[in-house]
Amino acid sequence: MSVFSALDIASTGLTAQRQRIEVISSNLANAGATRTADGGPYRRKDLVFESTTPDSTFAHAFGSALGMEQEAGVRVIGVYEDASPFLRKYEPNHPDADTEGYVLYPNVNPIEEMVNLLSATRSFEANAQAVNAIKEIAAKSMEIGK
Q1: pLDDT (tens digit, 9 = 90+) per residue, 100-124?
Q2: Phi and psi at residue 108, in whole multiples of 5°?
Q3: Residue range 12-30, pLDDT digits in tens
Q4: Using CA atoms, how far apart are residues 135 and 132, in angstroms rounded to an integer?
Q5: Cα dihedral sign, 123-127-132-137
Q6: 60, 78 in Cβ contact below 8 A?
Q7: I need a surface site. Which of 37, 76, 104, 112 has the fewest CB within 10 A?
């Protein structure tokens, strides 16, 4: 594996975790939104990842043509809405209450979202440390060549 392949792989992880952090932040920001543009409460969102080869160079194309094992990164293939039921609370004076006095709140659990945010942040940090290690290895190899 070349230094550039390792950087490509780590960058896919950074990009995927950044997107995950953005979705989690959106979930937390809308945890109390009882009315959206669609008319109902906010519905929690989550990402789906898949393993992929990084955006490629000639070396990747050449290697795949020769049947060599390809390095894999990660990418986001979609954002889906969580189908779990909304939270119902009895608040008859709320402007969004139904005829029975219940209000539907988003299916966002702030504790679960904070755990997901911590996990995404740690994954992002691990990929950032990998990039720094790769840069150090490249710098040391340049010194060896002197």
Answers
A1: 999 999 999 999 999 999 999 999 9
A2: -100, 125
A3: 999 999 999 999 999 999 9
A4: 5
A5: positive
A6: no
A7: 37
93 burial class (0-12, 13-18, 19+ CB within 10 angstroms)?
exposed
Contact 124, 18 (CB under 8 A): yes
Give the predicted TM-score (pTM) of the model. 0.80
Query: Reduced to 3 states, what is the DSSP secondary structure of residue 52?
Result: strand
Contacts of 107-111 with CB under 8 Å at 24 or more apart are: 107/41, 107/43, 107/44, 107/82, 108/27, 108/28, 108/30, 108/31, 108/42, 108/44, 110/28, 110/31
Q: Which two tokens stand for residue 94?
A: 């709320």
Most distant CA atoms of the chain, gap in Å: 79
pLDDT at 15: 92
Q: What whole-number distance in Å separates Cα of residue 104 and Cα of residue 3?
A: 51
